[in-house]
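Bug #77: duplicate submission created two jobs. Keeping one. Sequence:
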Amino acid sequence: MRIARLGAADLGSVRTRNSLDILVPKESGNLFTTHRMEAARDRTAYVRAPLVAVVPPALPHSLADRPGSNTLILSIAEPFFNETARAALGSDEFSFVGPHAAADSLIREVADAVGREFPSLDRLTVSFLNALAALLAAHIARNYVAAGPAKATSPGGLAAHKMRCVRSFVAEHLGETIHVEQLAAEVNLSPFHFARMFKQSTEQSPHLYILLQRIKRAKELLAGTDSPIIEVAADVGFRTQGHFTGVFHRYTGFTPKVFRTSAREASSRPTDPSGDSHDQ
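Kept job's structure:
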């Protein structure tokens, strides 16, 4: 394991690492992480304390931060992490499913302890680093990784036209209570067979799919409108703002208010084709 502070050489240009990197910004940090999603879309996350970012091995990404040693990087070698993940998950195949930025109290406490006990990182011993790597690798495997290969669909699921019908129905009724029986009726199946086939197609239960669509739509409304949070909650099917806030935080690592602020700060931040930070 290697522990370092984010330096000028890490900023701006696209970097691809052969390690799992955990980025832990200080209170003074103003960290942006950008990586390429499917369909050649870039995803940028604003990672500010108390959030952390988990960057999987071999994922091309770029970083931007204000000057100074504002972010601690905890790097775990890919072979070591893979071995630990296999043991923790009981599977030889796994994929990352966790958020690119998340509130993670254990990682935050570990990083704070390292900074407090070892202000000079060159005093870290090999035995200490090995123990720390084992702890963090197991934690990441259990919380940010799913056993089994990533799949777009599974054979034996719903036909494509039926999936389109279901997705359309969910999108049109997000503000309402949606029952599995309603979705099953849309594609002329019993609720039992519909739920089984839907999960084969999406690797999600109908309930989880609907919930994630509510969260996705809420993100769009929070970032793109000035609607009060209580109205956003109602628009995506939550009866109370408190319930919405709890669920949104669980699946994004942000409260709705913090997500709205972060999204707007990220969108207003100037970009440079060279990828260099404008925080200088």
